[in-house]
Amino acid sequence: MTARVVLAYSGGLDTTVAIPYLSKMTGGEVVAVSLDLGQGGEDMESVRQRALDSGAVESIVVDARDEFAEEYCLPTIKANGMYMKQYPLVSAISRPLIVKHLIKAAEEHGGTHVSHGCTGKGNDQVRFEVGFRNLNPNLEIIAPARDYAWTRDKAIAFAEEIDLPIEQSASSPFSVDQNVWGRAVEAGYLEDLWNAPTKDIYSYTEDPAMGNAPDEVIISFEAGKPVAIDGRKVTVLEAIEELNRRGGAQGVGRLDMVEDRLVGIKSREIYEAPGAMILIKAHEALEDVTLERELARYKRLVDARWSEEVYDGLWFGPLKRSLDAFVDSTQEYVTGDIRLVLNAGSITVNGRRSNTSLYDFNLATYDTGDTFDQTMAKGFVQLHGLSSEIANKRDREAN
């Protein structure tokens, strides 16, 4: 049976050269699959044609922008998805969607193999391959960069050997991944942790020091879902895109972090995610108003665990599904408006309103009209601290 490899195709140098290389190594055909996830830049028709020009027998382009926003970004908002309390899972949430469409293409076009361009050092190999095995374990997996020790130098040399035209510059030292949820940059001089990122690193955001006038924005949510900006109805995709523009103009959403990769090493990453960071900040602020204290405390634990599951490539796993069910159950009353000010790289919440709020003005106020019975507090405080009081007494007497 002739091999038919379904390749996750980005249109860049590595995956372009991978098309003839995979054909040579397997003796089969290559089907290229590209997803529009709102990454911007090159026209997707050009990407599709480049794959065909490079030897693909089929080149499939999927407009997955709304699907990505509704089914992957929205759950991340509801779960306040932030790995290590910082990273809004820019790349991690895109991989299961790419996996889904690669499996679909393989089933529709007689695929025998699926392939990706990830190295053996990163997290993405795990996200792709665990996803492939979860959805269709009968497909064989090829990872040229890892399985054949495929390097950029080798890719360029192979392209020259077969006269494959490659327009992409090989001079950039950085590895970049981007979609509508954000942009990730690594490698090059960033691998020295003491080196500060230079201005040319950034694309989604302006310099926070530019001094643009503050931008006040009101985001409205219904059951945890952003539905309007400044009173104007929007889809989730439109909300992300608008906040990317407005937040990016204020230098909001930049992140320079050292993260713990799944394979056990630490890696320095630069991220830009203005829309993601604004939406998560607003969503957290609304949960502060609408979630009961014990539920809110426990949800913060679940949010962290959800983020770890997604980061670790277990989007299709049973724990992730169960955590999704919990998160969804908490969102019934997360409805209302959050007002924020975007300025000089910062996001500041300065207004909250909700018809499902648990904030009771009459209980909270210190002025006339206070309905909180302070006489109950004395006994409460004594009982609350009783166990630690007894323990400290024992410790003093023992010493």
TrEMBL record:
<keyword id="KW-0547">Nucleotide-binding</keyword>
<dbReference type="GO" id="GO:0004055">
    <property type="term" value="F:argininosuccinate synthase activity"/>
</dbReference>
<protein>
    <recommendedName>
        <fullName>Argininosuccinate synthase</fullName>
        <ecNumber>6.3.4.5</ecNumber>
    </recommendedName>
</protein>
<feature type="binding site">
    <location>
        <position position="119"/>
    </location>
    <ligand>
        <name>L-aspartate</name>
    </ligand>
</feature>
<comment type="pathway">
    <text>Amino-acid biosynthesis; L-arginine biosynthesis; L-arginine from L-ornithine and carbamoyl phosphate: step 2/3.</text>
</comment>
<dbReference type="InterPro" id="IPR048267">
    <property type="entry name" value="Arginosuc_syn_N"/>
</dbReference>
<dbReference type="GO" id="GO:0006526">
    <property type="term" value="P:L-arginine biosynthetic process"/>
</dbReference>
<keyword id="KW-0055">Arginine biosynthesis</keyword>
<dbReference type="GO" id="GO:0005737">
    <property type="term" value="C:cytoplasm"/>
</dbReference>
<dbReference type="InterPro" id="IPR024074">
    <property type="entry name" value="AS_cat/multimer_dom_body"/>
</dbReference>
<feature type="binding site">
    <location>
        <position position="259"/>
    </location>
    <ligand>
        <name>L-citrulline</name>
    </ligand>
</feature>
<feature type="binding site">
    <location>
        <position position="175"/>
    </location>
    <ligand>
        <name>L-citrulline</name>
    </ligand>
</feature>
<dbReference type="InterPro" id="IPR018223">
    <property type="entry name" value="Arginosuc_synth_CS"/>
</dbReference>
<dbReference type="GO" id="GO:0000050">
    <property type="term" value="P:urea cycle"/>
</dbReference>
<comment type="similarity">
    <text>Belongs to the argininosuccinate synthase family. Type 1 subfamily.</text>
</comment>
<dbReference type="InterPro" id="IPR001518">
    <property type="entry name" value="Arginosuc_synth"/>
</dbReference>
<dbReference type="GO" id="GO:0005524">
    <property type="term" value="F:ATP binding"/>
</dbReference>
<feature type="binding site">
    <location>
        <position position="117"/>
    </location>
    <ligand>
        <name>ATP</name>
    </ligand>
</feature>
<comment type="subunit">
    <text>Homotetramer.</text>
</comment>
<feature type="binding site">
    <location>
        <position position="124"/>
    </location>
    <ligand>
        <name>L-aspartate</name>
    </ligand>
</feature>
<feature type="binding site">
    <location>
        <position position="127"/>
    </location>
    <ligand>
        <name>L-citrulline</name>
    </ligand>
</feature>
<feature type="binding site">
    <location>
        <position position="123"/>
    </location>
    <ligand>
        <name>L-aspartate</name>
    </ligand>
</feature>
<keyword id="KW-0963">Cytoplasm</keyword>
<dbReference type="Pfam" id="PF00764">
    <property type="entry name" value="Arginosuc_synth"/>
</dbReference>
<feature type="domain" description="Arginosuccinate synthase C-terminal">
    <location>
        <begin position="174"/>
        <end position="390"/>
    </location>
</feature>
<feature type="binding site">
    <location>
        <begin position="8"/>
        <end position="16"/>
    </location>
    <ligand>
        <name>ATP</name>
    </ligand>
</feature>
<feature type="binding site">
    <location>
        <position position="271"/>
    </location>
    <ligand>
        <name>L-citrulline</name>
    </ligand>
</feature>
<feature type="binding site">
    <location>
        <position position="123"/>
    </location>
    <ligand>
        <name>L-citrulline</name>
    </ligand>
</feature>
<dbReference type="InterPro" id="IPR048268">
    <property type="entry name" value="Arginosuc_syn_C"/>
</dbReference>
<dbReference type="Pfam" id="PF20979">
    <property type="entry name" value="Arginosuc_syn_C"/>
</dbReference>
<keyword id="KW-0028">Amino-acid biosynthesis</keyword>
<dbReference type="InterPro" id="IPR014729">
    <property type="entry name" value="Rossmann-like_a/b/a_fold"/>
</dbReference>
<dbReference type="GO" id="GO:0000053">
    <property type="term" value="P:argininosuccinate metabolic process"/>
</dbReference>
<feature type="domain" description="Arginosuccinate synthase-like N-terminal">
    <location>
        <begin position="4"/>
        <end position="165"/>
    </location>
</feature>
<feature type="binding site">
    <location>
        <position position="87"/>
    </location>
    <ligand>
        <name>L-citrulline</name>
    </ligand>
</feature>
<keyword id="KW-0067">ATP-binding</keyword>
<dbReference type="InterPro" id="IPR023434">
    <property type="entry name" value="Arginosuc_synth_type_1_subfam"/>
</dbReference>
<keyword id="KW-0436">Ligase</keyword>
